[in-house]
Every structure is written in structure tokens, then in C-alpha cells.
Specification:
Length: 228
């Protein structure tokens, strides 16, 4: 391989590792990263960050997302057969603002199905423990690493999303499912950092912690290392 690897993640069944791969990349991915100085013939060129798999038994490495799609974030389904993916066509530095939510098959065909076209930016796609729903954050965000908005869920087969935090006077910035099918999420409240938990079945929200602190979560897609 030659390029850039980011965000390696074990499959739930432990048989493979997924990661984001930018073939022949000349710099780290992201709109806030300095461009590589151009020399020689100047032309418009960009590199697609794709989802790739490594089979641990055979060592096989294959890119499974479409060659013309830039993948920003992803998450394994609990049964290790699919991914939830936030992606967009074309230049990844420009199109995060119009990225959609997809379900990508982990099999040889790598079929990719769009399930949600959001009116605003989305981030942190995360499968529920039973594999039936995908949670994400949606809202008016600035640059790609700066996440903020409400917590939503959507059926993994597609459909209308449900806003779980419509009246919350805060902005969510990360989330994770618990084994009990509740959602823990970080939030910013009047300048404070906070953590809360919500039960999607009842929409009950319970605060867990709040403090005058700055809590940093490394965004997906920014844990890069070169490969050759």
C-alpha cells in the first residue's frame, strides 16, 4: 500500500480490520490541513478517502467503497456485515457539507445504499446494539472536525429520522450506544462540557456530569499514519 491510513477499527467478530485509506495521498486528509506545494504542471487533482478492509486470515487488503466517493466517518454493524458511512462524491475537502448517510455492504460487491440525505451536516454514525438503528448527530456545523447539533436515530433500512433531543438547550458533540440500547452523548451547555444519557424508547434524558471543563474527543478521520 502507498498512501495514508486512518481510523483502524476491529470488526465485532474479530476477523478483519477496517480503516480509511487514501491511495497515493500527498498530505493528511481534511480541509484544515495545509496543501502540498505544487510543482511542475499545475492541475486540479484530489484523492478520495475510501473504506478498506484487511482480512486477518489471508492478509488480503481491499478497498470496498466506490472509487468516486469520499468517506468521512464509518461504523461497523454489530454482525460485521455492513457499515454505516458518511460520504460524498468528489473532493472531500469541499463536500462534507453535503455528505449523505449510507449503508455499505462489507462483502465482495461492496454495495452502497443511501438511506438519508440531510438538510444540514451530520456526524458520528453509530449502529445500535441490535443492528436495527443508526444514531448520528445533525445540525449546523462549521468545519469538519467541529461537531454540534441534535441526536437522531434512523432505521438501518432507511426512512424518516427521529430527533431525540429537540428541546434540549445544549448541543451534542459525540455519542455512543450502551449495551442496554441507550445513547450516551457529550454536549456543550452554556459553555460547560457535559455528558448525558437518553433512552430512545421513552425519550427520557438523564444528566450524568457537567463541569467547567474542555473535553476533547479526537474526531474520526484524523488519526492518520503514512503507509508504503
Amino acid at each position: 500500500m502507498k498512501g495514508l491510513l486512518a481510523t483502524p477499527r476491529w470488526a465485532p467478530d474479530g476477523k478483519s480490520v477496517a480503516m480509511l485509506y487514501t491511495e497515493n495521498a500527498t498530505r493528511a486528509a481534511g480541509p484544515l490541513v495545509a496543501e502540498t506545494p505544487e510543482t511542475g504542471e499545475i492541475k486540479d487533482a484530489f484523492f478520495e478517502q475510501r473504506l478498506a478492509l484487511i482480512d486477518l486470515a489471508t492478509g488480503e487488503f481491499r478497498q470496498i467503497s466506490p472509487a468516486d466517493m469520499y468517506v468521512y466517518e464509518y461504523d461497523w454493524s454489530p454482525d460485521s456485515t455492513r457499515f454505516s458511512v458518511i460520504a460524498a462524491h468528489g473532493n472531500g475537502d469541499n463536500n462534507w457539507y453535503v455528505a449523505n448517510l449510507y449503508v455499505l455492504d462489507a462483502g465482495p460487491l461492496g454495495q452502497m445504499k443511501p438511506i438519508y440525505k440531510p438538510p444540514l451536516q451530520i456526524a458520528n454514525p453509530t449502529w445500535s446494539p441490535d443492528g436495527k438503528k443508526i444514531a448520528f448527530i445533525a445540525g449546523l456545523m462549521s468545519d469538519e472536525p467541529s461537531v454540534g447539533g441534535d441526536v437522531y436515530t434512523i432505521p438501518a433500512t432507511g426512512g424518516e429520522p427521529t430527533n431525540l433531543t429537540p428541546e434540549v438547550k445544549a448541543t451534542a458533540n459525540w455519542l455512543a450506544w450502551t449495551p442496554e440500547a441507550k445513547i450516551v452523548f457529550g454536549e456543550t451547555v452554556e459553555g460547560d462540557a457535559a455528558v448525558a444519557i437518553i433512552d430512545p424508547a421513552s425519550a427520557r434524558i438523564d444528566p450524568l456530569w457537567r463541569g467547567q471543563e474542555y473535553v476533547f474527543r479526537r474526531p474520526m478521520g484524523r488519526q492518520h499514519f503514512p503507509c508504503a
